[in-house]
Structure formats: structure tokens, C-alpha cells
Amino acid sequence: MTHALLVAIPIVLAVVAGCSSGSGSATDDDGDGGLSTTSAPEDIVVEAGDFTALADMTPVRGFFVANLRGQVDEAVAVAESPDGGVYPVGTVIQLIPQEAMVKRAPGFDPDSNDWEFFTLDATAEGTTILTRGGSEVVNGFSGLSCASCHSAAEPEFDFVCEDTHGCEPLPVPDDVITSIQLADPRPLR
Question: How high does pLDDT run on average in the chain?
């Protein structure tokens, strides 16, 4: 079982979340003939302490969603929408405690739809970031870029993989994923 988990964790992590970029700045008619400018959302820099126990996040069909800017409702609405959408900056998506993806501001990494990927060490003391970045983050066991797996997601799902989003199915049974999720050692906040 331990060997299966060691093989399954990196595979699951490489296939997990999603991403999409928003627009830069737009100029809109404000209704009175004048123009107003809206700008891209400010970027967010993630620290190890930003990653919480999965049980502190909102579960959606087997993965977990949070937002570091307090936009949990907006992030969950995108995750639950059958039509997809673009996740707000600061959205955290995790399938298992050892990997995460965080939506960054437009321009962070267009190749990964502006998602930053993380490999994590989750312990009872908290989380340590092992690796982070865009499409260069590689799953240690599969040797594949996290972004390469997520790029198969249909565009409307913002780089988030699920059974109906165009991605290859995970080569790990759901019960193994659930057992990894339930073994998250991080304390609740």
C-alpha cells in the first residue's frame, strides 16, 4: 500500500488543478460618454503558511478550493459551474495535501494559464513548499510538467482537470485519492 501511495501521489498531483488567464486592462464606456479603465487584478505571492489542511477548504467533487483574497464564493462558483469560468486570482486548488495550484495575476505564466504549481511537504507542524513555479514544475515520479497534464483541460475550465474536462483520467483509484486526502496531517485552523 505504501508503494502504491508513493506512486499515486505524484501522478495525482500532476493531473490535479486548472488555469486560465484573464485580460490585461480594458477600456469600457461608463455610460456617460466617458471612458473608464479597469486594470488587471494585483498579483499575489504565496507563502507556505497560506496552505491549510484540506478540511479547512471547500470540497467540490473530490478536490478542494480556497481563495487567499477572501473570494471563496466566487472560486467555488467557478468550480461548481458546468460551463466553467475563470478562477479569481488567489484561488488555491488541491486534490491531495502534497500538491497545489494557485491562480496568479494575468502575465505570471501564460503557458500555464497563470497558475503557479507547488509540490508541498505537509506535516502536523504545517506546510513547507518544496518546489513552485509555472510550466517548469515537474512531478517527481512521472517526470511530467504539471502544466502539460492540465493543458489538456478544455479552455472553459481554466486548466482544471476533471473526468469531463478533456483530461486523461487519473491512473489512481478514487479510494486511494480519498485515503491520501484523509491522511492530511496538517492541523485545522
Answer: 80
Identify whether 183 is part of a domain: no
Q: Report which DSSP code applies to 138.
A: B
Strands (E), the chain: 26-29, 35-38, 58-60, 63-67, 91-94, 99-103, 115-123, 126-133
CA distance linking residue 104 with residue 133, whole number of Å: 11
The domain containing residue 71 runs over which residues? 2-20+44-178
Q: Give domain status of residue 38, yes or no.
A: no
Give the Cα separation of 5 and 113 in Å (integer).
Answer: 29
Name which of 132, 146, 125, 145 is nearest 47 in CA terms: 132
C-alpha distances in angstroms, 24 versus 41, 105, 112?
9, 9, 16
- CA-to-CA dists, residue 20 to 59, 84, 140, 147, angstroms: 21, 11, 24, 11
Other beta carbons within 10 angstroms of residue 108's beta carbon come to 20
Band (115; pLDDT cuts 50, 70, 90): very high
| pTM of the predicted model as reported, rounded to 2 decimal places | 0.78
* Within a domain: 39: no
The 3-state secondary structure of 102-123 reads: EECCCCCCHHHCCEEEEEEEEE
- Please state whether beta strands 91-94 and 99-103 pair in parallel, antiparallel, or not at all (unpaired): antiparallel
Question: What is the total count of domains within the chain?
Answer: 1
